[in-house]
Amino acid sequence: MNAFYQRKFFILTAHPDDAESACGGLIAKVIQNGGAVTNCIMIKPSVEIDKNRDESIVRSELEQSQKVLHHTVEFYSTPLHSNGRPNLVLNNNLVTTIEEIAKGYDVLISHWREDSHQEHRICYELAQSLARKSFKEFWCMDQTPYNLLLKVPKNNQMAIKKN
User: Fold this and answer.
1) Dihedral of the CA atoms 155, 47, 95, 62 (nearest 10)?
2) What is the DSSP letter of 42?
3) 85 and 48 in contact (C-beta within 8 Å)?
4) Which pTM value belongs to this model?
5) Can you count the helices (H) and strands (E) in the chain?
6) Which residues lie below 8 Å from residue 42, measured CB to CB, with a gap of 6+?
7) Residue 112, beta-bridge partner list
8) 110: left (phi over 0), alpha (psi -120 to 50) or beta
9) Spatial contact of 92 and 123, defined as CB atoms under 8 Å apart
10) Burial label, 25 (beta-carbon count in 10 A; 0-12, 13-18, 19+)
11) Domains of the chain (ranges, CATH numbers)
12) What's CA 155's distance to the chain center, in Å?
């Protein structure tokens, strides 16, 4: 076992698939080496851009991911905008709520500040606020720009499965 991975990692993401697509390999390695990973997802499965994907499909994919990676998932109940889409806004209430969830972790991972997705950037700003408290390290993850992912054929982005 590698002691580097035997720590508690708190991953703050906007969406249910962000951690898997940005650092799924790291999650697997941490768990395999006796560490712990919690992914705090700010936007719970709700209205999708793709009308062929509904909340039940997204939740099923997340459950499958958890079975493979063995990480813990926490959802923040982001309020919805009048248009039905999530309305993630950085404010003192949000920071205080997530600070309570994030107590006792060693490493904080979130989106990076140059990310093209507005909800990812809000997570970065939230993580910046959280990092000033109890974390020993703050890492940023990178992903393919969201607009490019929409051009990739469906079911061709990744396959996480147990062999």
Assistant:
1) -40
2) S
3) no
4) 0.85
5) 5, 5
6) 12, 13, 14, 15, 76, 78, 86, 88, 119, 122, 123, 126
7) none
8) beta
9) no
10) exposed
11) 3-149 (3.40.50.10320)
12) 20
Dihedral angle of Cα 25, 35, 10, 124, to the nearest 10 degrees: -40
Instruction: Evaluate whether 115 touches 80 at the Cβ level (below 8 Å).
Output: no
Q: Is the pLDDT of residue 158 over 60?
A: no
| Dist. CA 20–CA 27, nearest whole Å | 8
89 vs 78: CA distance, rounded Å: 9
Helix axes 18-32, 55-69, angle to 10 degrees: 20
Q: How far is CA 49 from the centre of its chain?
A: 18
Question: What does the pLDDT look like over 66-94, one tens digit per residue?
Answer: 999 999 999 998 988 888 788 999 999 99
Alpha helices (H) along the chain: 18-32, 55-69, 92-101, 118-131, 146-149
